[in-house]
Design a protein that fits this description.
Blueprint (H helix, E strand, L loop, with lengths): L29 H8 L5 E9 L7 E5 H17 L7 E5 L5 H11 L3 E4 L6 H11 L3 E4 L1 H8 L9 E4 L22 E6 L9 E5 L5 H5 L8 E4 L6 H12 L3 E4 L5 H11 L3 E4 L1 H7 L14 E6 L4 H8 L3 E4 L2 E4 L2 E6 L9 E5 L9 E5 L4 E5 L12 E6 L6 E2 L3 H6 L1 E2 L2 E10 L5 E6 L4 E2 L4 E2 L1 H11 L3 E11 L2 E10 L7 H14 L7 E4 L14 H7 L9
Parallel strand pairs: 1-10, 3-4, 3-5, 5-6, 9-10, 9-11, 11-12, 12-15, 27-28
Antiparallel strand pairs: 1-2, 7-8, 8-20, 13-14, 15-16, 16-17, 17-23, 18-19, 19-22, 21-22, 22-23, 24-25, 26-27
């Protein structure tokens, strides 16, 4: 077996001077420690979309002192409105730092912030709010209007307009709630690829566990973060950066042109995003931009494509033994909405070759198992259910004990993924359980097959394999996006792709269709294969 080269991210110099959080600090009160150990007056958070709160001027940068004061004033106002400890409160805003402010304010009084993705429709948002038993919703005016026209929202739920909540006077304070280890601090949403999102419960210490264990190893003093502000991953990154005294730009505009402009202006050492953002970036001619400040590209979520990673690590620069060298590291963190921190890490550089949907090794505080449906460990090389056991795993789905129990097997939390462990200990992800394709003569793993096609047909920028049902039974469809400026057509590539399928011993595609860059993409950037399966048809090869 080919020996794999392992890259270890270098320790951040800025982190070595920062105090490690004591055991009393967790996700519910992390800001207290950041304020006690770092410069509270220097700007730490920069915003591409200014934060607007009642009675304050528009803010495009924030110091820790400003964040602390604003969140305490908002906490006092919410307390006056009747919000109390343990109350679930939904937060449904336009993409802005308002999510962070609400997270801090609600935790200050011991209430439980429940984030909703800003792109959710009113009907789904209302159903979600009802499911979690929220006592109130903090929303902007546009989303309050949306909610007011839905039928699922219980009449007992109070609606508060974030833009008009009058902040309490700074002299008026509410005693900070004292969090215990298992107190809930956030109800985070899943991607909702199967319908209404599930509410993932994160607790004070569980949500903070990965941040604590990786403290001092986080890279870069300046971070450009494109993770949705309504997602748990963004709060996790914010905790890490602010606790070690770093600076972070929260970028809500995620189109490629805005992103490269932000990199050139802010000059981050680290760029953090979901995989979809990296896919979009790679549609550009990256050599045309100054990305030299970037030493680390940090992805969290699904495994990234080899061709895109190789393009990105050619950009940027990093210090190697004190010498600045061309090229960067791509940190491919594999995780899920149910985990307060990533599960696996695979670090790529110009010199590594750990691809083929290799997700690397789990973090050392995580126990991973590949199981069969009965909960028995399978042999190395055999595909099975990915199970995880860790303090950082969710406590469960809020108000949904049945689904919580169904995701547990043999003491492990099932991620919904199919994977295998290689002989050298590295792990490989092959598919989501729901996307595995079972044909009469073959079982195909769509994610692994997509990666294989992209590797052997470099004209393909991205592709999606789906199973469709036709008059003659199940069949395969391939949706293809070609490389920018690629002159070949999908129809011209189709015979070559199907010849590869035959050489691999797989059935050929009955249809190979062109797909657009943003077709069938969910709110968190995931391809909605469920929707693709229902809409795809056995259209003749190359006809679209």
């Amino acid at each position: 077996m080919k020996r794999r080269t392992t890259v270890t991210p270098t320790r951040s110099l800025s982190a070595t001077t920062i105090s490690t959080p004591p055991e009393t600090i967790g996700a519910g009160n992390f800001l207290d420690h950041a304020c006690a150990t770092t410069d509270v007056r220097a700007p730490k958070i920069f915003l591409d979309k200014p934060l607007v709160v009642q009675g304050e001027q528009s803010l495009d940068e924030l110091s820790l002192l400003q964040i602390k004061v604003l969140s305490c004033r908002l906490a006092a106002s919410l307390f006056d409105l009747g919000i109390r400890a343990k109350d679930p409160v939904a937060v449904y805003l336009d993409e802005s730092a308002g999510y962070l402010l609400c997270y801090l304010a609600l935790n200050h009084i011991g209430a439980i912030p429940a984030f909703l993705n800003s792109g959710l429709s009113g009907d789904i948002a209302s159903a979600y709010i009802a499911r979690i038993g929220a006592v109130a919703v903090i929303a902007d005016a546009a989303r309050i209007e949306i909610l007011s026209h839905t039928e699922a929202l219980p009449e007992t739920v109070s609606l508060y307009d974030f833009g008009v909540i009058e902040l309490a006077d700074a002299s008026k304070s509410v005693a900070a709630y004292r969090h215990h280890d298992d107190d809930p601090v956030l109800l985070a949403h899943t991607s909702g690829t199967t319908g209404i999102p599930k509410a993932v419960q994160f607790n004070h210490q569980g949500f903070f566990h990965g941040v604590r264990r990786q403290f001092g190893k986080t890279m870069g003093g300046r971070v450009l973060c494109t993770l949705p502000l309504s997602h748990a991953s963004c709060i996790s990154v914010l905790m890490s950066i602010l606790l070690r005294g770093g600076q972070i730009l929260l970028q809500s505009q995620r189109d490629p042109a805005s992103l490269v402009a932000a990199i050139e202006k802010f000059k981050p050492e680290m760029f953090a995003a979901f995989p979809k953002v990296f896919v979009d970036l790679c549609r550009l001619d990256l050599d045309a931009y100054d990305l030299s400040s970037v030493s680390w590209w940090l992805s969290t979520g699904d495994a990234n494509h080899e061709s895109h990673i190789r393009k990105l690590v050619r950009q940027g620069s990093r210090s190697v033994e004190g010498i600045r060298r061309k090229g960067s590291l791509f940190i491919d963190n594999f995780g899920a909405s149910e985990f307060g921190y990533a599960i696996f890490r695979n670090v790529h550089s110009l010199d590594t070759d750990n691809y083929g949907r290799c997700i690397g090794l789990p973090f050392d505080w995580i126990d991973v198992a590949i199981l069969d449906t009965q909960g028995t460990l399978v042999k190395p090389g055999q595909v099975g259910l990915l199970g995880v056991r860790s303090p950082s795993v969710t406590a469960g789905y809020w108000n949904d004990s049945v689904t919580t129990q169904r995701t547990r097997l043999a003491g492990y939390w099932l991620t919904g993924d199919l994977a295998y462990r290689a002989d050298d200990g590295q792990y490989f992800h092959v598919d989501r359980i729901s996307d595995r394709i079972d044909l009469s003569a073959d079982t195909l793993f769509s994610c692994a097959l997509e990666e294989r096609i992209m590797r052997h047909v470099p004209e393909v920028f991205e592709c999606t394999v789906v199973e469709v049902s036709g008059s003659e039974g199940k069949a395969l469809t391939l949706l293809v996006e070609l490389q920018p400026r690629e002159e070949d057509t999908v129809g011209e590539l189709a015979p070559r792709i199907n010849k590869l399928m035959e050489s691999w011993g797989h059935p050929v595609f009955t249809s190979i269709l062109k797909q657009s860059a943003h077709e069938h993409v969910g709110l968190t950037g995931k391809k909605l294969k469920r929707k693709l399966r229902s809409e795809s048809s056995t259209t003749p090869i190359g006809s679209r």
